[in-house]
Amino acid sequence: MGSRADRIYRAGVEAKGQAVLIRDITRVLAVFAHPDDAEWMFGGTIARLVAGGASVDYVCCTDGSNGGVDLSVTAAELAATRAAELRAAADVLGVGEIVMLDYPNDQLTPTVELRRDLVRQIRRLRPQLILAMAPQRLADAPIDLLHGDHMASAEAALLAAYPEALMPRIYPELADEGLSAHAVSEVWTSAYGDADQYVDVSDYAEQKMSAIWCHTSQNGLANGDRDRLFREQVAPPMVAAGERIGCEYAERYKRTRISG
User: Fold this and answer.
1) Which ranges of 16-174 would DSSP assign to H, the alpha helix?
2) In this predicted structure, what is the pLDDT of residue 260?
3) How far apart are the C-alpha atoms of 68 and 218, rounded to whole Å?
4) Is 237 inside any structural domain?
5) Low-confidence ranges of the chain (pLDDT < 70)
6) 13 in a domain, yes or no?
7) pLDDT on residue 6
8) What pLDDT sits at residue 193?
9) Residue 62 belongs to some domain of the structure
10) pTM higher than the cut 0.85
């Protein structure tokens, strides 16, 4: 079964005979809406996976061009800034490739076009595991996490993972790009009270915070106070999740098995 540190915990307790081992996950794709979403939602999990030898790549669905209040900065300038911040944050976590799909911020829907773009990356990068945001409104989640783009990116990711990436007759034009069908093993979507998958990230909370802090254009409410941002916004959901499995900090998900 492996050591306690290797296991991911399910529904607050270890699931005997069913525990997923972090060390068995080797290829991961994080799909998210805006350039800072991955660090906030999965940062500790990503850091832990990379530390264990997994390869992690990103697909960011939007350009992030509406994520600012300074109207003297053009949308194009802000999009470029946010892309650079994302690369810096990804480097902190050890993420490899970043694909920017550049759909307009605040207009994302799970269209055929978006799903095909995600299938292209799934078939190209061939992950075992996809990390995505919550595809539905969560009654117990903070309001700032219930953005329409978040839900749209997650719904598109789930549909792209199954059945679309798996079925060769769906988007046959991708075969002309040399991309064959691929079976994703599972998808983990962000969760709160309904979580059934917990990852102990106690050793990676500081690394997660360092990645979040790279998103300078989005951290204005902290007024330059990194400790305040961690204490008031970053730590509380990790502490609440950690209490469920008896550790300091955790991240939590809803697990969808697809194959394997």
Assistant:
1) 37-51, 75-93, 112-125, 148-159
2) 60
3) 7
4) yes
5) 1-20, 141, 143-145, 260
6) no
7) 55
8) 80
9) yes
10) yes
| Containing structural domain, residue 51 | 25-257
pLDDT of residue 223: 79
Q: Which two tokens stand for residue 15?
A: 């699931």
The CATH number of the domain where 96 resides is what?
3.40.50.10320
What gap in Å lies between CA 53 and CA 50, rounded to an integer? Answer: 5
151 inside domain: yes
Residue 10 backbone dihedrals phi, psi, to 5 degrees: -115, 135
Q: Which one, of 156, 138, 159, lies nearest residue 147 by Cα?
A: 138
Query: Tokens 């978006």, residue?
Result: 114
Distance CA 148, CA 61 (A): 12
In the chain, DSSP finds a helix count (H) and a strand count (E) of 7, 7
Amino acid making up residue 249 = Y
- CA–CA separation, 4 vs 147, rounded Å? 35
CA distance 157 to 180: 18
Domain count, the chain: 1
